[in-house]
TrEMBL record:
Tagged with keyword Transferase: no
Name of the top EC class for this enzyme: hydrolase
Low complexity: compositionally biased ranges: 1-15
Protein name: Matrixin family metalloprotease
Chloroplast keyword on record: no
Length: 174
């Protein structure tokens, strides 16, 4: 028996975001199946956790090599330390830019002794922001549990993608 490949019309559509858009490869830092990263953050342990979180349990389509002489950086990790606008209540932020995208973690909230200065919170924020770099947007926490919820208190508590996040990854990246 010969069967046809499913048409793209029957393929699963990318997940819907809170703002009505959908997860998108076009709004990601991925270039050639990888996110080459550069620089460091005071929270490199959280960065390492985030990269591992998005490469375990079958999440193997996108690689995270360090930038070197053979590639261009797709993502720059760095820190900011302010609670003033526009950073008021912002724990971390991924921003797509011309050239190298930016992922910043905010020491004003994630630093030692701060409200979210514990390892679990740092890992969760880093993994969430790296999810944005993969093209994922905020998901409505009343619809399903997701690392991509807009507020830390709605995110999965262990800083790893949920089963639904993994399905969304496979829908977007294969």
């Amino acid at each position: 028996m010969v069967t046809a490949q499913p048409s793209s019309a029957h393929a699963a559509a990318p997940a819907t975001c809170m703002n009505g858009l959908k997860d998108s490869r076009g709004r990601s830092s991925v270039d050639g199946g990888e996110i080459a990263w550069e620089d460091s953050t005071r929270f490199d342990g959280a960065r390492r956790h985030a990269q591992q979180a998005w490469t375990r349990n079958g999440l193997d389509r996108v690689k995270f090599p360090a930038d070197d002489a053979t590639r261009y950086a797709d993502l720059e990790w760095s820190d900011v330390n302010t609670s003033r606008p526009p950073w008021k209540n912002i724990l971390g932020l991924w921003k797509g830019l011309q050239g190298t995208d930016s992922l910043r973690l905010n020491k004003a909230y994630l630093g030692p002794g701060k409200q979210y200065g514990d390892t679990r919170s740092r890992r969760t924020i880093a993994a969430h922001e790296l999810g944005h770099a993969l093209g994922f947007c905020h998901k409505n926490p009343s619809s399903y549990s997701s690392l991509m919820a807009p507020h830390i208190y709605d995110m999965s508590s262990n800083g790893t993608p949920t089963s639904r996040d993994r399905r969304n990854y496979h829908t977007l990246w294969g």
